[in-house]
Design goal:
disordered N terminus, Aminopeptidase, alpha+beta
Length: 157
């Protein structure tokens, strides 16, 4: 696996390990989630509108839910990352992959804080994750069953 190539949509990776990459786009930094980010995460992911648009986020979303989610990120074949805005490092959402290496396939999922909807952040992050899937992980297919049609089309998945 390459350790720092440059992708067509992003600035490449600073791979900590294949499950914990650090990716950057023009506006976003996509990095491993950590416990220190929980206080910033809860008001975003805890919104009813976010839970209503995802399969696996409950409402209300608690600190315990966040800690359980972080534990899941350590499972093999799961890549769960936080997304922050490069200009001020504030976290705005999360994105992840459930990788099926035996089928060279990944499922993309994400959520975005309501205040950040409609600004192209989801498309930008999804596009970089799809690039990472293909160019860095060598996968052949990425699906995103709950992603909006617009984001899925713009991201190329």
């Amino acid at each position: 696996m390459p350790d720092g190539g440059t992708g067509r949509n992003g600035r490449g990776t600073g791979i900590v390990n294949p499950r914990h990459p650090i990716l950057e786009t023009t506006r976003l930094r996509i990095r491993p989630s950590c416990e220190a980010g929980i206080p910033e995460l809860l008001p975003l992911v805890g919104a009813h509108e976010v839970a209503a648009t995802t399969l696996r986020i409950v409402h209300p979303y608690t600190e315990r839910d966040a800690r359980s989610f972080l534990a899941l990120a350590e499972y093999p074949n799961k890549i769960w990352l936080a997304i922050s805005v490069c200009s001020d490092r504030r976290q705005i959402d999360g994105i992840g992959l459930r990788v099926e290496p035996e089928h060279q396939h990944a499922e993309l999922g994400y959520w975005l804080g309501v205040a950040y909807w409609g600004q192209g952040y989801a498309t930008e992050a999804a596009r970089e994750m799809v690039r990472y899937d293909f160019e860095e992980l060598g996968l052949y297919h990425t699906s995103s069953p709950r992603t909006s049609g617009t984001t899925r089309h713009r991201a190329g998945s």
